[in-house]
Amino acid sequence: KINFDNASFKDFENIPGLDPYQWAELFNDYSEQLREKGHMNYRFESLSGCGPEIELKVPGKFDQRYVSLVSNDYLGFTQHPKMKAAAIRGIERFGSGAGASPAIGGHFSFHQELEQKIAGFFQRESAIIYTTGYTANSATFQCLLKKEDLAILDMSVHASVYEGCQLTNVKSFPHNNMEALERILQSSKDRYRTRMVIIDGVYSQDGDLAPLDKIVELCRHYDAYLAMDDAHGTGVIGKTGRGVIELYDLYQQVDIITGTFSKALGHIGGYVVASPKLINFLKFQARQHLFSSTSTPASMCILQAIDLIDEEPHWMEKLRENTAYLKNGLLSLGLDIGTSASAIIPVKIGDITRNAEICRLLMDAGVYTNQINYPAVSRKDARIRMSLMATHTQEQLDTVLNAWEWVKAKAGLHAEA
Ligand code: PMP
């Protein structure tokens, strides 16, 4: 039997000499071994919903309720009665599906309204929407950046950005390292047709923010375009939830803003906000827009979500209170939560095996989290990741803190782990 101890999912992407069916066979042995060792921690089991408390249906042992810290439904909008009603209204008015790609009859009035509304949300004129945030990134960068160009990526940008940059040259700089970014901007001057710096607003693994003011300054100085994916900042960061762009008041200085409707906005879908000419270009050139059907009429609820951000700001306030409460509790337990400045809170563990063990112990204490391992982060950066919701109650957060206190004692966890 092969020992897969040092393997990761990434090693199975391409194995020289074997065909994809053989990769799949090997991968099945690997995942079975992970499961036997308890490293899978019930990933991909079906859950009973995406609320702050869930039921996990694992026969026998774990058929019980857990406080859930795995959802990006930050404001709890997926369960909001007005959101459900708006989705139902959309379906009743237009039907259950869009029936076509935008170019051949799938672009409905609510799609148009949504494009205008999301652009206006960021104080800009134009937007294009996609069926997911992943597609918004992969389609846009694939369409704009070719082999004469250079994409300059913060190493921690989302996988969909990397996918979008497969047709172009890529240089990446260590996460949030401005000296390294400047070195790339300097050394690549006059060598490419277009240079585009691509960052996230809020980073999905650390929960920290991009230093947008410094990046805008560098891009201006070195004449590079700037694109920012603020999937995790929208609805969460900034006084009125416009994200990192609001925090720095740099609405007009980011050339391309991308994001998703699947997190704070409580549905699914993606968007790109940019100048009217660039958006028009994407509408005719982005293959995923031309050749793939548009989002379903249920996405009319996103119009409602954007209104709710302004009409019911108490959800954002509650999320911030919850985040502060949990962070303070974790810090007073002496746990290392890194540089988080959002509703994503990692607890650094630093070792894959211990990470799996701690994730399991947390479940024993009634708390469902995600263990994040290589290749999502480097091996030494293995961590438990938690994301908070406005709808978590204080009692649920106390359950989480009590669980960590118990796990810390049981697993001998220290801040410097
Ligand atoms: N960007 C970031 C930073 C993300 O974290 C995600 C989702 N995990 C996406 C884009 C993709 O969004 P979606 O789930 O809508 O495809």
UniProtKB/TrEMBL annotation:
Co-factor(s): pyridoxal 5'-phosphate
Pfam families: Aminotran_1_2
Organism taxonomic ancestry: Bacteria, Pseudomonadati, Bacteroidota, Sphingobacteriia, Sphingobacteriales
Protein's name in the database: Glycine C-acetyltransferase
Pathway note: Lipid metabolism
Molecular function GO labels: pyridoxal phosphate binding; transferase activity
Residue stretches in coiled coil: none
UniProt xrefs under SUPFAM superfamilies: PLP-dependent transferases
Keywords, comma-separated and alphabetical: Pyridoxal phosphate, Transferase
Listed InterPro entries: Aminotrans_II_pyridoxalP_BS, Aminotransferase_I/II_large, AON_synthase_class-II, PyrdxlP-dep_Trfase, PyrdxlP-dep_Trfase_major, PyrdxlP-dep_Trfase_small
Stretches assigned to the Aminotransferase class I/classII large domain: 67-402
Protein family membership: Belongs to the class-II pyridoxal-phosphate-dependent aminotransferase family.
